[in-house]
Design goal:
- This protein is an alpha/beta fold.
- The structure holds threonylcarbamoyladenylate and magnesium ion (MG).
Length: 342
């Protein structure tokens, strides 16, 4: 099958496909998703198959209005409602015990469902036109970097699904913040995103960043969010995450061989890397910009034939935490410190 790229005027056709049980690429403000009718087992099966996704990894369900949430879950605790009112539409996924409206297959066999109301107007229009909540994991092949443009989605899904809807480049560029409630006042961050722990703390009494966010899960251990145990976001190039300031990163890179090697640097590093003749690309001057750019940068590195990509690590506060969380996984936990003296 040839995959069609649809524009905004063709959303009603995309909705027709969705209602008839097909999987369709959907732009959101975080990353492109591979959407289907969340209540249709066969459609959900197609999504798992097109991605090559393990069956125990649950899908996030997308709604277009907060009123569509209650039927999908057993109850909405006051803290969850306060969070939704503050951060929806937007990049926050809230996990609650699921109702019988969510099939077990959509939930990866779990007793819960993560729901979010995306901010992207095309995503909202698709959900409304389909008339059902849409389950949508990120639209990459399982293990690959998440798609932040329709081109990335075509790269991974051409021939596997009937259509992708065009929605431009994703503003956030990393997937939503995924949270669960430990108790009536406590939020646990399972996956960091553009809604930061600092922001969540303004609404919740307590915010815990799950230990799996920054650590390598041990072999065979039980993680709260199944997605955290899989190898993720990895390009073909080997990736090393380098902690260190400008000078330390520059010196570290000067010691690497140059054949097939590239540095993914901050904007401020450019001039000195240029002078030193070290192959590099930059990925932004703020954590927000770096987050938006970095999945695309991983794909570009592969296109350029890079065999080893060294990425300058962000700090782990604010949106930097989301970026760092994706980077350690893309690097297969190969993290080095260049700041011997710091
Ligand atoms: O921004 C996003 O969240 C994007 C766009 C398309 O909305 N979607 C996305 O979905 O990133 P996915 O499937 O690639 O990542 C969902 C993550 C996985 O790590 C999964 O294990 C976790 O959320 N998750 C989903 N439902 C869960 C649940 N009920 N319990 C625990 N973890 C859950
Ligand atoms: Mg994903």
């Amino acid at each position: 099958m040839k995959t069609q790229l649809l524009n905004e005027e063709e959303i009603s056709y995309a909705a027709e496909l969705l209602r008839s049980g097909e999987a369709v690429g959907m732009p959101t403000e975080t990353v492109y998703g591979l959407a289907c009718d969340a209540g249709n087992d066969d459609a959900v099966r197609k999504v798992f198959a097109a991605k090559g996704r393990p069956a125990d990894n649950p899908l996030i369900v997308h709604i277009a209005d907060i009123s569509e949430w209650a039927p999908l879950v057993r109850e909405i605790p006051p803290l969850a409602m306060r969070l939704a009112e503050q951060f929806w539409p937007g990049p926050l996924t809230i996990i609650l015990p699921r109702s019988e409206k969510i099939p077990a297959i959509t939930a990866g066999g779990l007793d819960s469902v993560g729901v979010r109301l995306p901010a992207h107007p095309v995503a909202q229009a698709m959900i409304r036109a389909a008339g059902v909540p849409l389950a949508a994991p990120s639209g990459n092949r399982s293990g690959s970097p998440s798609p932040t443009t329709s081109g990335h989605m075509m790269m991974d899904m051409d021939g596997r699904i009937p259509a992708v809807v065009e929605g431009g480049s994703c503003a956030c560029g990393v997937e939503s913040t995924v949270i669960i409630l430990d108790d009536a006042e406590t939020v646990r961050v399972l996956r960091p995103g553009f809604v930061t722990p600092e922001q969540l703390n303004e609404i919740a009494g307590r915010v815990i960043v799950d230990e799996a966010v920054l650590a390598q899960p041990e072999e065979g251990c039980v993680v709260r969010s199944p997605g955290m145990k899989y190898k993720h976001y990895a390009p073909n190039a080997q990736v090393t995450l380098v902690n260190g300031n400008h000078q330390a990163f520059l010196q570290y890179m000067a010691q690497q061989k140059t054949q097939g090697v590239m540095a993914l640097a901050f904007d401020e590093d450019a001039e000195d890397f240029e002078k030193a003749g070290i192959p590099f690309r930059t990925y932004g001057n703020t954590d927000e910009k770096r987050a938006a750019a970095f999945f695309g940068a991983l794909r570009d590195a592969d296109e350029l034939g890079v065999t080893h990509l060294y990425v300058r690590a962000p700090r782990t506060d604010g949106v930097g935490l989301a970026l760092y969380n994706r980077l350690i996984r893309a690097a297969g936990y190969d993290v080095v410190s260049a700041d011997e003296t710091e």
